[in-house]
Structures are given as C-alpha cells and as structure tokens.
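Entry for SAJ complex. Fields follow.
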Amino acid sequence: MINIIGLGYIGLPTALMMASHGLDIIGTDYNKELVDTLNEGRTTFKEKGLEHLFKSAVDAGITFTTEYQTTDTYIISVPTPYDKFSKKVDAKYVINAVKEVMKVCIEGAVVVIESTISPGTIEKYIRPEIEKSGFKTGKDIHLVHAPERIIPGNMVYELCHNSRTIGADEKEVGEKVKEYYASFCQGEIVVTDIRTAEMSKVVENTFRAVNIAFANELAKICRHDEMDVYEIIRICNMHPRVNILQPGPGVGGHCISVDPWFLVGDYPSLAKVIDESMKTNDSMPDFVLNRIYEIMKKRGLNDITRVGLYGLAYKENVDDIRESPTLQLLESQERHLANGLKVYDPFVTKRVVANQYDTLDEFLEAVDMVVIMVGHSEIKENVHKLEKKIVLDTRNILGLADSYKL
Ligand code: SAJ
C-alpha cells in the first residue's frame, strides 16, 4: 500500500490517478475538514477532469484519513512555502511529514518527496532528520525525489502524458518507484540522482520565469515609445529559433513566482539574471496600477470605485489565488492608502477581498472601466458585454480594437 501524504493541488490528483490505475492508495492530510469533504464524495478544488478521476479512484477503493499509515511506501506532497525575506525554501512541512512517517513506517520503507524543494534540501534537512530518528538512509529508509510537472488547468491530461524525473540514492529503488508512476504515466520517466532531480525541477520553472520576465520587460520598453509589443513578439516568434512568451499583469501561482527565488536565495552572487527577472515580474502589478491611473486621467474618469478588476485567480480557468497578480495589485493599492477597486472572478466564489462581486452582470453594472487581469473563458465568451466600457486588456485576449493594452 502507498500512503500519499498531503492531498492538495498535486497530492490529490496523483493519489487519484494511482488508485484508479490499480495501486492500493490511502491518502493522508492533517486538515480534517479537507479529509471529511473527500470522504463525503466531494473534490476540494476545481480542475478539468478531476471529478471524473475522483469517482473512478473511489470506485477503485481509495480512502482518505488524517492518520499516517504503517506501510513500506510513502509519497510526500505537502507545501513548500518560501521565506519572503531570506528567499529560501521553508521545508518545515516536508520535515514534519518525514518525522511523522518515521514514527509509523516499517524498516526498509521508501520515502518519496514529491514537493518542490530547493536543490540540496534533502541532503541538508531531510536526510539528517531521518538519521536523527535512528534510521540509516540507503539501508533502513530509501529516499527518493520525484517532482511533478503538471500545469494547473490541464493537470489530469499532463499527469498521464508529461515525462517525469525520479531522483534516488539507489538505482533499484528509483526503478521500483518508476513502476508506480508508469502505471498511469505514458511519458518518459528518467531515473537519476536526488540532487539532479531537485535542480532540474527548479530550473524548469526558472526558465519559464525568466522568459516571461523578458516579455514583460519588452512590454515596458514598448509602452515607453508606444510600440505594439504583441505584434513585435508575433513577428519575432516567426523566427525558427525565437519563442518569446506573453507579457502579463504579473506572475502568480505557487511555482513560477516562487521556485526561482530558491536559486537567488542560495546563490545570491551568481543568480543575477534570475534575480532581475523575478523583480521584473514582481513589478508588473504596480505597472498595471500606474496604467489604470494613466488611462483614468486620459478618459476623465476620476472615481476609482468605478474601476473593476476582472479575475482574482493567478491564471485562466483555475480557482487558485496563490500569489495572484490581482491580490498583489490590491495590496499595492492599499499601500498607497487607496482602495475601492471592484473585483470579480467566476472561479473564486469565497469572499477573499473587499468589493468582490458574485456575477459578471452585477460587476459590470457597477463599473465604467474593466481591467482584464485573467483570461478566463467566461469573459472571452461575453466580450459583447464590454461594448460600452473602457477596457484595459492586460492579457491581450479579447481582440477588441479600442481596448487599452499593457
Ligand atoms: N504567464 C505569463 N505569460 C506567459 C505565461 C504565463 O504572464 O506567457 C503567467 C501566468 O498568467 C501565471 C504565471 O505566469 O500567473 C504562471 O503560470 P504558468 O501557466 O506559466 O505556470 P504554473 O505556475 O501554473 O505551472 C508551472 C509549470 N511549469 C512550467 O511550465 C515550466 C508546470 O509545468 C509545473 O508543474 C508547475 O509550475 C509547478 O508545480 O511547479
């Protein structure tokens, strides 16, 4: 039996996928409310294909509990926040999970860390923790790092199709864990060492962060001299070896806006391009705020309460608001001792900010200017409702001839 620890955005789909492909899975999470919800037959977040997968995993016998199980295989998928000041990974949840596993596991158990960690975390924190409990790694406990690569919004598909990396101390153990993932994953699964697996995961997200920062910087340069950044990117991308990403109102989510900081935190004098890129991405919500004021002035609109932000999630068609550019923008506005911006997101039904609306129509009724922060399908399907509004389309997704851009 495999005990999956942490039933969040990654742990839950992974547990469901393994269970529905015939593996014996028990999911553990310390959050009783979350476990109760799952046991009542409901999923805990919205994601394409998740409901269906949930049903087939339940039919296959998956169970959820708050208790750690006594078994020979664990997959730990708990959050790894980062410390905003030191920019270093905060591995406390992973360390706690490992400590709990040590209390119940059988000798010879395999402990797979799936959470994203900064390169070196296993050597610096996890291995010593295990040895403190009296176990010898490589003998009593076998350590593995198997970072995920799935993208929110397309998780179920990517779980089955992306290639994966498995880092292990011993090749045989890596191969054994590879079999579990190969039960559902059609992509190539590379077995390597732990340090390489840790580093590859963080480097992939850093590559994307730097590439987005480049697009964001181009947007600022083009705004300075009133050039069309989107047309320029479109033309450049026709070159066979150029592939620029899209500028946007900022970078959110728990991966691309966080993982690259691990490298800056650990190698401050070496990770220069990465550091500047992260600062550029982090500056985008403020850039949008300035753009809002600029457009308001131009259009003679002086009531900020008649301006609305469309989208609270960190990107299109997900309900995840972690590090969302809209939240960053609202925080920045508060720092300037102003507030009043109205907000609406069809995916975020819980109250998370002031002036939040429940329906698109009520939201549009309340504002004269709409700032598109997220390109949810809903707004693309309702573009006609924006006809009489001043629109700032920070994602360039609406195709409106008279909208303002970044
Ligand atoms: N964004 C832009 N411009 C772009 C692309 C994205 O501004 O051209 C913004 C998005 O709007 C969002 C942020 O960047 O705010 C990140 O979104 P994303 O879709 O690029 O990535 P995530 O964070 O949802 O998922 C990433 C993925 N990593 C890579 O593509 C290298 C995913 O495969 C990882 O599994 C995930 O991080 C993770 O968990 O680490």
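NOTE: The radius of gyration is 23 Å.
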